[in-house]
Amino acid sequence: MSAKSYGSSRKIVMAIDIGTTSAKVLAVDAAVLKGNKEGTAAAAKAETEYPLNEPFPGRFEQDPDRIAEAVGLAVRKLLEQEAVKPEEIIGISFSSAMHSLIAVNAEGAPLTACITWADLRASSYAAALRASGQAAGIARRTGVPVHAMTPLCKLMWMRDHEPAAFLAAHTFIGVKEYVLFRWFGGPYVMDESVAGGTGLYNLVEGSWDEESLALAGIDAGRLPRLVSSTHVLRGMRQEAAAALGLPADVPVIVGAADGVLANLGAGAVEEGVAAVTVGTSGAVRIGMDRPAADPEGRLFCYKLADGLWVAGGPVNSGGVVLRWLRDKLVPADAAEAARSGLDPYERIVSLAMETPPGADGLLCLPHLAGERAPHWDEDARGVFFGLSLGHDRRHLLRSGLEGIVLGLRTVAEAVAATADGPLREIRASGGFARSGALRQLMADIFGCPVTLADTEEASAIGAAMLALLALGEAGSLRGLAAAVHIVDRREPQIEAVRVYDRLYPVYRSLYDALAPAFADIAAYQRDVITDPQ
C-alpha cells in the first residue's frame, strides 16, 4: 500500500520498539531514511514505561497485558503530537526484546506472567545441559548458547515447577507475538530472529529444532508459525485499530529482535564494522552473509533477513551496573544533580574521569547479575580487584565503567574470530553511548574508532528499514544501512590504549581464576535466600 492510497505525499513508517522497561514509538520519515532528504529520520517519538517485576531474587517478570496497553498508549501519544497524521503512515514495524516466554490458552489469554530475558529461575536446567555435554550440540544447531535466558530452559523449568500451566498452554509465545495477537488475532507468528533466541530454532534448517523440542517436552504445534522479519500482516481487528487511532488496513511488518535491528539501524552490517549497544544490558554484534554458529558456544547467530545474519554476544553487565554505581556509591551526588536539573549519570562520569585510565590499578568484574557472553555463567559475581588505601570512590566509579567496556572487549574478540577478521570500527548505540566521555573510553579500550549514528534509537530505525524493504520502498537493507549518517567519531588515544592493553590480560585472567569461587558463593547465596520453587 502506498502513501498515495492515503492521500499524502510524505511517507512515514511507525516503528515500535518493545523494550525491557518501556515501549517506544517513532515516526520515521522514509525519505530521510533513504538519504533522499536532509533532516532527522525520527520525525516524532513517544514512550510509555512499565515495570520489570522481581517477585523473588533472580526472577524477573512482567504483565503481558500491561505491556500491550503501553504499546497502544505510546502509539496514541505519538498521534496526539500531530507531528504525523494517520494517513501518512505507509506501514508499522516492530522491534522487541528477546527471550521472553508467555504461556497462553486457546483464546490467547496468558496463563503465566511474561518471563523476561533477565530471569534466572532456569539456571539449574542450563547448568545440567552444560554438564551433560548437550549444550554444545544445542548451540551448534540453534546458534544460541545454553543459558537460563532461553525459552528452552524456561520451558524445562515450567514443565517441572508449573505443570498445570505447562499442560494447559495452547501456545508458548513471546511479548511481540502477544501484542500482534491482540491486534490481529491468530494464528501466532514469530520472526526468525526472535525464534533464534529461543534455543528451539534450527539455524541452518530454518525450522523448529526437533531435538530441542524433545528436551522441552513440546511439539512444534505449540509454537508460533515461523515467518520472515519482512512478513506483512493485514486486516487489523477493527476494535484494535479504533483504539489505536489507526486505519485497519495499514500494513504491519512483523519485524525482528531489537539486537539485530540495532546493527541495521546503526549501519553496522558491513565487514569489520561491529555495533556495540549498551542499555540495561549490552551486546557486541556484527553482520554476516552466512549463518555462523560459534563452535565454542560463546556467541549467538540470528537470521535478520535473507542473505543477512547477525553474530555476537550479549552481556548482563551494562547500564544495570551504572545504575548500581549511582545508587550505591554516590546517591547523594546523584540526588543533588537531579535537584539541579542535571543528569545524575553525567555526574558519575565526571567523578570517574577525575582519575586516570586504569583507575590506578583497580579492576572491576561487573558481573552483578551473573554474566552471559562469553562465559554464560549465571553464578558469576561482581569483584573489585587491586583495592589499596590509595583508592577512593572515584576509582571505584571509573573501574566500574571500565569493567563494563573491558567485558565487551572480551566479546568483541570472539566476534572478530567468528567473522574471520579484525574489527576496524565500532558503531555505538544505547544510553551509555550518549556520553562523549564514555564513547572515548570505548575507543581507548577497544583500540579502534568509535562512531555514533544520528539517532540513539537504532533498533527502531532498523525496524523502519525492514518496513521499507517489505513494502517495496527500498532495494536492499545494506543500501539503507549505507545511508546512515555518522555524527561523531572518537579515535583511540595512544597512551590510554597502552594502559588498557597492559591491564586487559589481568582482567581476562580474573574470571577463570575465580569461577570455582563464584560457584561456591552463589550456592551459599541460594541457601541463604531460599527459592520457593
TrEMBL record:
Q: Which residues form the Carbohydrate kinase FGGY C-terminal domain?
A: 274-470
One Pfam family matching this protein: FGGY_C
Keywords assigned by UniProt, alphabetized: Kinase, Transferase
What are the protein's GO molecular function terms?
A: gluconokinase activity
Might you give the EC number(s) for this enzyme?
A: 2.7.1.12
- Fetch the InterPro entries from UniProt: ATPase_NBD, Carb_kinase_FGGY, Carb_kinase_FGGY_CS, FGGY_C, FGGY_Carb_Kinase, FGGY_N
Any idea where the Carbohydrate kinase FGGY N-terminal domain is?
13-265
The record's section on Gene3D superfamilies has: 3.30.420.40
What is the similarity comment for this entry?
Belongs to the FGGY kinase family.
This protein's name: Gluconokinase
Q: Organism source for this protein? A: Paenibacillus mendelii
Lineage of source species: Bacteria, Bacillati, Bacillota, Bacilli, Bacillales
